[in-house]
Each structure stands twice: as C-alpha cells, then as structure tokens.
Amino acid sequence: MTVAELICPAGTPASLRTAVDAGADAVYCGFQNATNARNFPGLNFSPDELAASVRYAHEQGTKVLLALNTYPPDGKFDLWKEAADLGARLGIDAYIVADVGVAEYIRQNHPGIRLHLSVQAAASSPEAIRYYVREFAVKRVVLPRILTIPEIREIKSEIPCEIETFIFGNHGLMVEGRCSLTNYATGLSTNMDGVCSPAAEVHYVRDDQENLSTRLGEFTIDRFGAGEKAGYPTICKGRYTTAQRQGGYYAFEEPISLNLARLLPDLIDAGVNAFKIEGRQRSRAYVREVVSSFRYAVDQIRAGNKPDLADLVALTEGQKETQGAFRTKKWR
Amino acid sequence: MTAAPARASRMATLGAVLPMPLFVLQPVLRRIARRITREHAEVFARLGPHTQTGFVIDPVDFPFALFLRPEPQAPDFRAVRRAHLPAHEARISGSFLTLLRLIDADVDGDALFFSRDLVISGNTEAVVSLRNALDDVEGSIAADVAEMFGPLGRIALRKLRQAAHASPPTEG
User: Fold this and answer.
1) Domain of B115?
2) Which residue in chain A is spatially nearest to B44 when comparing CA positions?
3) CB contact under 8 A, B124 and A286
4) Which of A15, A193, A204, B89 is 20 to 30 A removed from A306 (C-alpha atoms)?
C-alpha cells in the first residue's frame, strides 16, 4: 500500500494554517504573480507570508510545495527564476513546474529540492513522463484528469517516479497547459498569465425574473434560471447552442466537481502516491471541511477500515459531483 | 428549530418589518470599521486598488443595506437605504445569516454562489479581492465584532450562529 499523501490547497496564509491543522501532509501554494496558475486578485503569498507559512507548516511536520506551474512568455523568464530562487531561500520542499525551461533552471540551480511535474504539463503517457524524469530528475507527476484507474495502474508500472492524482475539486478537462479559451475571450492567458477567466472580465447580470447571465469579456457563456445551481464563469463550463442539439448545451463539460472519495482504495491499489485536493481559490471553510474529510478517509483506509465518507456535495460546483474519467471514459 | 435559534432567526429578520433610524447604527458601524482596520491591517494589502472601491453589502432581509469603502486611513462603513444607495462599484447580496456565516469563516463563498444564496454584481474583481482579503483574517471577523460588545455580544453571536445552522443556505 502506498503512503497516499494528502496534498492540500492554500490560497492565503490563513488557508495554509487551516490545511495544516486539518491534517494535510503537504500544502501547495504560489506567489502573488503570474508564476502560478491561480493568479487571482487578493490571493496567494508575499515572500514574508510564505516564509512564515513554511515555518508554521514545518513545525507541524507538513511539507510546502511551491507552484511555479505556468509558462514564461518570451522576455519574462526572470520572474520565474526569481520565484524559484526565493522559494529555495524560504525552505520550500518541492516545486511544481510545467515549463521545461523552469524545470531545467531548477535542476541546475536547486538540485537538492524535489521537482514535481504539474498537471499543466499534461504528461499522460509513460514516454512523456520518462522524458521529464530523465531530463529534469522529476520525482512525481501530477496526472491529467483524463485517465481511468486501469490506465493509471499501467502507467505506474512503466515509470520510475511517483504519481499524484486529483481527488476532489474542479473537473477541468481541457488539455491542461494548452487551453487558450480564456486567451481567445479576454486576451489574457491561463498558461502564461496564470489566470483562467480573469475576474476583471467576468460580469454577472441578473434580470427581474432572477435569471443569472454570466459574461466573460464580450461573450455570454451561461445563463442560469431562477434557483438553478450555478458554476464557475469558465468557458469550458459554459452552455452553448449547437446544430445537433436543441437549447443550450454544455459542449465541453458541465458545472460539476470531481469527488473520488469512494475510489480512494482503488487509487491506492493502483499505486497512486499522493492525492491532490483542488481549490487554492476557495475559502478556509472549504479547506477545513474537505481536508479533514479526506484526512479521515485516507487514515481509515490505511488502517484497513471502510470510511464513512462525509457528504461534500454542498461544496461542489453546480452542487453536482462526478468520478469523471477515473471511473469510465463515458462519464457524460 | 429550537426556541433560542428560532428567536434569533426572528430577530435577524425583524428589521425587515421595523423602521429603524439609521443614525443610531452609524457610530457602531464606524467603531467596527476602526477596530477591523486597526487589528487586521493585512486586509488592505490583499485589496490592492480596491481600497478605493465602494461596496454595497446587502442583507436582503434587513430594511437597510451597508456601504463599505475600505480605505486604510479612513474606512467608510455605514448603513444606507436601498432607495438611496451611494455610488458603488460592487454589490454583494444574501440573507443576513448567510452573510454572517461568510464573515464568521463558517461557509465557503463559492459554494454560496453556486447555490445562488449569494448574489454578486458589478465589479467582480473587487468582490473576489474583498472575499480573499477577509478570508485571510485569522479567526472570525464576526467574533471580533461580537467581542467589542462584551458578554452581550458573545451571547448574541452564539444565538445567531445557532440560527444560521438551524436554517442553513440551500444545499444539494
């Protein structure tokens, strides 16, 4: 049985302490700039905040992983180098990277710190993963959310590194690291600016019948009827008209969250080394509830018990949950 | 619902039917703003440019709304009539108990948005900044405010928390 570390999100220092106190084995976080894929207003860590947070986490035996998981645009690579150097000085335990340049810089300059390959690298084949291991000494790969458990088991048998899978949160299935939908709609890049659906470009319009329209830039991407559960304002969760269907249709994915609570034993059995909870943009209340629920579940499974799993549906997008491709490729 | 939470819940919505002279509230709200400003200066760094943004915070079951301009040196926090709202860039609406749970760090803002218990309009970036700034305040802002009013404040918060949990926002 693998250790199955619990990797938990932290968007602010208070969230980080909440995650640590709730039983995270490791927390992941980022600086207040484009070097990470949750570059949202009011979120993330100043250098001083990260220094204090690393101290707090280490005192409790929790690791801190620094997300540097965006792609430096031409001429701006220094920002990623400085973030990597700063992270090393502050004592972080691992980097989460996607770009080969960032990976190479860290391999050369901070070889004593673990490298994890971000889901943003979209490495889903043994060949791709072995390349990153061979060239950059990557110790762990975060797999895209498009693989079934048998496929994960097969990949595990063919790679010389650890596997981390998402178990809860956003069910974003665009080819991560290569999605340009936000860029098309707003001019800002998810992958280079670190922001999917920038809040400054999001507008909610409610009419007098309480229908809620979500606009991103100049595009209306969804319209929720009165009382209908809502989702994030992302294009991949938008509803569109198509020639093949009547009415609005979730052409890419529905507003829905991943929840693999019931698949944890199968994932451990397949050789997954770490479970990732998505949600650096979420609140302390989310972090406390989700982390403590999965801490309990993982501990019970490791003790040979069947956990009584908490109901987390109230925290899910659209208040719906799925096991997605982990259960079957035909989840929709 | 037990008797105490039911009473608190009724108190929370009492304002919907009782006329209330706002001038009575203003000194209390100013005091709350000064206290939060003094004790949680870190909030302003997270707000960035939105320390100059005007927010309307609208407990829909109250007869008045609140206006907030979170300037570090001179925070403006006051009760306002809905018919005469001051110029503002963002608005956050929900029941009083929903908003209370939010500043009590007891419930997730995104989940409230998904369930439609929380409605936001205007400048979304300002709302997201404010949400993240307040969520980084250690402990509970609601508890800090209650503490200002001593034992009575603590009792009132306890009753309101019970009421909030007895009638939680829409789920599922």
Assistant:
1) 3-166
2) A42
3) no
4) A15
Measured between beta carbons, the chain A residues lying within 8 angstroms of B90 are none
Judging by beta carbons within 10 Å of its beta carbon (0-12, 13-18, 19+), is residue B56 exposed, middle or buried? buried
**Residue at B155 is within a domain:** yes
**Residue-wise pLDDT tens digits, A146-197:** 999 999 999 999 999 999 999 999 887 767 788 999 999 999 999 999 999 9
Number of domains comprising chain B: 1
Is B34 domain-assigned? yes
- pLDDT tens digits, one per residue of B109-134: 999 999 999 999 999 999 999 999 99
Q: Do B124 and A15 touch (CB under 8 A)?
A: no
Domain with CATH 3.20.20.70 in chain A: 5-173+255-327
**Do the beta carbons of residue A248 and residue B72 sit within 8 Å?**
no
pLDDT of A312 higher than 90: no
| Residue type, position B137, single letter | V
pLDDT of residue A46: 97
- DSSP lists the bridge partners of residue B54 as none
Q: For residue B21, is it within any domain?
A: yes
Mean pLDDT of A121-132: 97
Let me know if residue B172 belongs to a domain: no
Contacts of A24-27 spanning 24+ positions with Cβ under 8 A: A24/A62, A24/A291, A24/A295, A25/A62, A25/A63, A25/A274, A26/A62, A26/A63, A26/A64, A26/A65, A26/A93, A26/A94, A26/A274, A27/A57, A27/A62, A27/A63, A27/A64, A27/A65
d(CA B19, nearest CA chain A) in Å: 26
CATH code, domain with B10: 3.30.1050.10
Mean of the pLDDT values across residues A122-143? 97
**Among partner residues A42, A202, A230, which is closest to B114 by beta-carbon distance?**
A230
Band (B1; pLDDT cuts 50, 70, 90) = very low
- Residue B167 has a pLDDT of 73
Class assignment of domain A5-173+255-327?
A: alpha beta
What pLDDT digit, counting tens, does each position of A11-57 carry?
999 999 999 999 999 999 999 999 999 999 999 999 999 999 999 99
Mean pLDDT, residues A90-118:
98
- The CA R_g of chain A, rounded to the nearest whole Å, is 19
Six token digits for residue A267? 């994932």
Nearest to B137 by CA among A205, A18, A55: A18
Interatomic CA distance for residues A266 and A306, integer angstroms: 12
Q: Are A51 and A90 in contact (CB under 8 A)?
A: yes
Using the Cα atoms of residue B106, residue B112, residue B114 and residue B115 in order, give the sign of their dihedral. Answer: positive
Is A52 part of the contact surface with chain B (CB cutoff 8 Å)? no
